[in-house]
Amino acid sequence: MSETPDSLALIAGRGDYPLRLARGARKQGVRRIVAVAFRGETSREIHTVADEVIWCPSCALVAMLAALEQSGAKHVAMAGQINPKNLFHIRLDRAFVELLKALPVKNAHTIFSAIIKRIEALGLTLLPACEFMQDYVPAAGLLTARAPDERELNDIQIGRRVIKDTSHLDIGQTVVVKEGMILAVEAFEGTNQAIRRGGKLGGKGAVVVKIPKIGHDMRFDIPVVGPQTLKSLRKAGISCLALEEGGAIVLEKDTLIARADALGMAVTVLKDDYALRDV
Fold this sequence. Notes:
This protein folds into two domains: 7-126, Rossmann fold; 137-276, LpxI C-terminal catalytic domain (Cytidine Deaminase, domain 2). It is 34% helix and 20% strand. The protein is built from nine helices and 13 strands. It has helices at 17-27, 61-71, 86-89, 94-101, 108-120, 150-165, 191-202, 227-236, 253-263, and strands at 7-12, 32-38, 52-56, 75-79, 125-126, 141-142, 174-178, 181-185, 207-210, 224-225, 240-244, 249-250, 266-270.
């Protein structure tokens, strides 16, 4: 983005990510922030970082689009997840039901891409989810005191290959690997559940690779690692976490790395050079 917008509409999901993005936007000169929040999902703390908050029911497409128009902003950012169970366990509005029916394959990429088209049809510009989060995007290199050992490095390459080579399937960004065996591939349940599922199957010592697929649309669903991720890694007995430069946001980085060091866990950020590698 060449110029910082004067106002921003923030589609705010769960967790701290929307709050941090709003603070980052303010720091970079965004004067007015209108948050489009979802009941039962968005933290009430959103009121502390936004000039205005418009609350909508979860999975109510018409209400969300109306809120974006009401905001008066021309630029939009998405931050934070919506519980995927909502697609199955709450009542969707008619527009959302019709949107889903029109999709032959339903996953995060196809659903959000369809939503983005509806947003852009309003004349709005959707910014990358990391637009105001540069301070949270780690460079390539080792983040922890311990580096991955030979076995973990091999598992990292296997996990990376699985994610990159299945990009056309539009499944998850997370793979759990141990000693060359794929224990879990993230589906619609999300990262934390995939990690715990893999750990339960393989026991302690597995490796988690969490990176974007090839052609990933960074305007939504960018890989995010934070305290909740670390909690899942610890419970699953994960020994190593691999991310990719420019492809992840790390929340509370200093605290996360200190706790990873205390657990003896290796955390590394891979160079974004998969196309140049023979794996």
